[in-house]
């Protein structure tokens, strides 16, 4: 058999996938022909076969639909993981870190570019691991975040054939499927492009996600080393106490999936000066730089307490570990208003347009303060209004309310 798993065995439904995506705190797109590309990584074993899945989840005339095809989210072996290359100063084969990457791929309906076949070209920056030891298991090390290495979605066999059924050097980190499977989604994609444009979001999840309802001393991503792993507690004492915090780490702060330690995968980088609402904290999370307080957000993810300052709490009690806000809280000079981010991963830019690379992203629910309004910025979806934040960065008004 070419595939070791069958579509019949996974039985993913529209509701099941939608609920799993939302449970992770990711954005789920609704509306006719607004496509959700959900890639399911079945395990960390590099099988060299199409043992993962791509689910395209959408509605058409109000009817809920799912197209699922066997695929791979992992590189192959021959000419790939057995021959690691050096990119960005790091040696290893690229593997995309699970997460949601908003508007990071654009559909190229042409036979004159990559692989001489329609494909999805990487358009935005995403996160990677680099596997270097040539075994057949993903090593969650050598993290490279916010990079653009040309990891596309494309066919991984010659036209009209499944080839050998092996991935091999069809993927050096790209995701895709054998051509007879890949072509099944193309008519739908072309209709979606006409309706909504050619840029798409990719969501990479693990099979376990579908089973439930769903360096500087101030940056926890660099405060520990792989050679000296930090001891992680087997259980945590969670304290329910809502708070509003502001990221004080100039290099940003990692949001960690489901547990207060650096052993879990990274969801995203929270930018400097972002305001976050928390539901509580633990005091016995992983100690980073001598501090073991971690805060939990409403999606169940955690971030290190050493990289934030507390603006306010819902309780009258105070803690000795909370830093003073009198000297470290951001200044409000010149602020004329504030808005709430309603888009996951809203991009912050140095100018009110998309001509230059973005400098950071903002999680959904973040409160953004602004000092001015630009009404003649670049028009995005017919809306040319942009805000200038109190830190001098711009964000599009269509992503806030």
Give a verbal description of the structure.
The structure is a single chain. By secondary structure, the protein is mainly beta. It has 3 domains: 7-211, no CATH class; 238-328, SH3 Domains (SH3 type barrels, Roll), CATH 2.30.30.40; 337-399, Roll (SH3 type barrels), CATH 2.30.30. Helix content is 9%, strand content 34%. The protein is built from 6 helices and 25 strands. The chain is globular.
Short description:
The chain has 401 residues and is mostly beta strands. It has six helices and 25 strands.
Keyphrases for this structure?
single chain; 6 helices; six-stranded mixed sheet; 9% helix; 34% strand; SH3 type barrels; 401 residues
Number of domains: 3
Strand content: 25-35%
Measured distance between first and last alpha carbons = 51 Å
Strand-pairing-aware structural class? mainly beta
Low-confidence stretches: 1-9, 212-234, 315-332
Number of helices: 6
- Mean pLDDT equals 81
Estimated helix fraction: under 10%
Strand order of the largest sheet: 3-2-1-12-6-7
User: What would you call the shape?
Assistant: globular
Largest sheet: 6 strands, mixed
* Rg, nearest Å: 22 Å
Q: How many strands?
A: 25
Give a topology summary.
Blueprint: H1 7-10, H2 14-23, E1 36-41, E2 52-60, E3 63-71, H3 77-81, E4 85-87, E5 90-96, E6 99-108, E7 119-122, E8 126-131, E9 144-147, E10 153-155, E11 175-177, H4 179-182, H5 186-196, E12 199-206, E13 238-247, E14 253-256, E15 266-270, E16 275-282, E17 294-296, E18 302-304, E19 308-313, H6 325-328, E20 337-340, E21 346-348, E22 360-362, E23 367-374, E24 386-389, E25 394-396
Parallel strand pairs: 1-12, 10-11
Antiparallel strand pairs: 1-2, 2-3, 4-5, 5-8, 6-7, 6-12, 8-9, 13-16, 13-19, 14-15, 16-17, 17-18, 20-23, 21-22, 23-24, 24-25
């Amino acid at each position: 058999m070419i595939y070791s798993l069958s579509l019949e065995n996974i039985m993913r439904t529209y509701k099941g996938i939608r609920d799993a995506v939302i449970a992770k705190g990711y954005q789920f797109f609704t509306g006719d022909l607004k496509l959700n590309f959900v890639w399911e990584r079945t395990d960390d074993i590099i099988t060299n076969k199409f043992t993962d899945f791509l689910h395209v989840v959408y509605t058409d005339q109000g009817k809920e639909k799912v197209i699922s095809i066997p695929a791979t989210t992992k590189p192959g072996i021959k000419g790939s993981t057995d021959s690691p290359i050096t990119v960005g100063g790091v040696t290893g084969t690229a593997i995309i870190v699970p997460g949601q990457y908003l508007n990071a791929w654009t559909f190229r309906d042409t036979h004159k570019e990559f692989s001489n076949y329609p494909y999805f070209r990487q358009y935005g920056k995403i996160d990677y691991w680099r596997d270097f030891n040539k075994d057949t298991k993903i090593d969650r090390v050598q993290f490279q975040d916010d990079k653009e290495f040309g990891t596309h979605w494309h066919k991984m066999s010659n036209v009209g054939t499944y080839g050998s059924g092996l991935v091999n050097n069809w993927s050096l980190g790209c995701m895709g499927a054998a051509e007879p499977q890949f072509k099944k989604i193309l008519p739908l994609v072309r209709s979606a492009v006409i309706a909504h444009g050619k840029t798409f979001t990719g969501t990479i999840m693990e099979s376990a996600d579908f089973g439930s309802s769903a360096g500087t001393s101030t940056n926890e991503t660099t405060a520990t080393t792989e050679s000296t792993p930090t001891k992680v507690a087997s259980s945590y004492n969670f304290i329910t106490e809502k708070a509003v915090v502001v990221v004080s780490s100039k290099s940003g702060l990692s949001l960690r999936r489901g547990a207060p330690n650096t052993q879990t995968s990274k969801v995203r980088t929270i930018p400097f000066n972002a305001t976050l609402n928390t539901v509580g904290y633990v005091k016995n999370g992983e100690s980073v730089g001598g501090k073991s307080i971690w805060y939990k957000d409403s999606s169940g993810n955690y971030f290190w307490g050493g990289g934030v300052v507390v603006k306010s709490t819902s309780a009258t009690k105070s803690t000795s570990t909370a830093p003073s806000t009198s000297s470290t809280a951001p200044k409000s000079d010149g602020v004329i208003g504030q808005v709430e981010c309603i888009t996951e991963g809203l991009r912050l830019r140095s100018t009110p347009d998309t001509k230059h690379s973005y400098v950071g992203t903002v999680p959904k629910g973040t409160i953004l303060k602004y000092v001015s309004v630009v009404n003649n910025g670049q028009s995005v979806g017919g809306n040319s209004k942009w805000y200038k934040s109190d830190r001098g960065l711009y964000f599009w008004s269509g992503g806030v309310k």
